[in-house]
Write a structure and sequence with these properties.
Distance between the termini: 7 Å
Strand content: under 5%
Largest sheet: none
Helix content: over 70%
CATH topology of the largest domain: Serine Threonine Protein Phosphatase 5, Tetratricopeptide repeat
Number of helices: 22
Order of helices and strands: HHHHHHHHHHHHHHHHHHHHHH
CATH class of the largest domain: Mainly Alpha
Structural class: mainly alpha
Number of strands: 0
Oligomer: single chain
């Protein structure tokens, strides 16, 4: 594969910086030097997609694939353009199927293929695609969200709700909510040594929070124990214990620690979070979960996921209108919250509003794919493979 021209390199750099207009101009300059370069067309397709010019994105991605049928990033751009344009589900299915063959281990290809099948009303094929995605990555939250939507259509909310919660627990945003409530910063590069932490309550609790964020439960346990040895009734230390137990699926212990913490500080957000999640996981305790999440929403109302957790409990109580309102608030606070988008789609389905539900699923797909930075990953793999030849 020939080396990249200066114009193409400039276009790539500008595109990575988010300078879409300047990157498009550089692409056209590169095209003037030789229009048989698939990377230029693929990059243009991505840029057109960023500007919501779907027809142009489809045209440029198609040209890239015609030049090189193995250009996976171009298939991604083409599939996303078809999906976002809407009404072209047959073409979308074909593109995602092609991408799943060009890159068989690409989980998102199977998730998107399932969503295209579902939009084209091929429900059985959609479910098989999402199951294939979960075979490749059992922690793929979006595939589980889609299976929950499929379950809702076939079996109703009672059987779908556990799948929504399962997907939520796979979604990293739920843990991010806890640490946002806790107020901890970035995890350090080196492991936390409890023996080297300053022997004060504040330092130990701060280090314990960072250890939990780094999934170092042993270090966190040592630090929390040191705090509780000095004061068994420290509410923040008890809330950290509740979260640690929650991560180990020890629901009873988590509930006990959270309730003791709240008896000492009824407004402690981290303890409210842990207790609400424990209640939400228990069959028949949706009413209790809703009450706890209402209290949490009063303490942390600017956090989108708090309202999503509340909405899920309201769905379990079949309070669909209230759930829809909570989901809408979550989307307003964070339009990129995939969990809120899928929840709002579920609310629309309970009201028979299938078109709005499908639109929310498409928006969830848009934000999830954008969050992954998938285009650039595939693009760089393609460039790297070409440079090795």
């Amino acid at each position: 594969m020939a080396g990249r021209s200066t114009a193409l390199l400039t276009a790539e750099e500008l595109a990575r910086q988010g300078a879409v207009s300047a990157a498009v101009e550089a692409c056209y300059e590169a095209l003037a030097l030789g229009d048989r370069e698939p990377r230029i067309h693929g990059l243009l397709a991505h840029l057109m997609l960023e500007g919501d010019f779907y027809d142009q994105a489809i045209s440029e991605a198609t040209k890239a694939i015609e030049i090189d049928p193995d250009f996976s990033a171009a298939y991604l751009a083409l599939g996303l353009a078809y999906d976002r344009r809407g009404g072209m589900w047959d073409q979308s299915v074909l593109v995602w199927h092609e991408l799943s063959e060009v890159a068989p281990d690409l989980v998102t290809a199977h998730v998107q293929l399932g969503e295209a099948y579902a939009a084209a009303t091929f429900e059985d094929e959609a479910v098989e695609s999402w199951k294939r995605a979960l075979e490749l990555d059992p922690k793929e939250a979006r595939a589980t969200y889609n299976l929950a939507i499929a379950s809702l259509k076939r079996e109703g909310m009672a059987l779908a709700l556990p799948l929504f919660r399962q997907a939520g627990e796979l979604d990293p945003s739920q843990d991010e909510l806890f640490f946002s409530l806790l107020g901890v910063g970035a995890v350090p590069d080196h492991p936390i040594d409890p023996a080297k932490v300053k022997p004060t309550r504040t330092a130990r609790l701060g280090a314990a929070g960072l250890a939990l964020k780094a999934d170092d439960l042993f270090a966190a346990a040592d630090l929390v124990r040191m705090v509780l040895d000095e004061d068994p009734d420290d509410p923040e230390a008890l809330a950290l214990s509740a979260y640690a137990y929650l991560k180990q699926e020890a629901a009873n212990e988590s509930m006990a620690c959270a309730m003791r913490s709240l008896s000492l500080d009824p407004e402690l957000a981290t303890a409210l979070y842990c207790l609400g999640v424990v209640y939400a996981r228990r069959t028949g305790l949706n009413r209790h979960a809703a009450r706890v999440f209402i209290a949490l929403a009063k303490r942390a109302g600017t956090q989108a996921l708090v309202h999503v957790l509340l909405a899920e409990s309201l769905l379990g109580l079949q309070r669909f209108e209230a759930a829809s309102k909570a989901y809408r608030l979550g989307v307003r606070l964070d339009p990129a919250c995939v969990r809120a988008r899928f929840g709002l789609a579920a609310s629309h389905l309970t009201e028979g509003r299938h078109a709005e539900a499908q639109w929310e699923i498409r928006r969830a797909a848009y934000y999830d794919t954008k969050r992954q930075g998938l285009f650039w990953r595939l693009y760089d793999e393609y460039v790297g493979a070409g440079d090795d030849e």
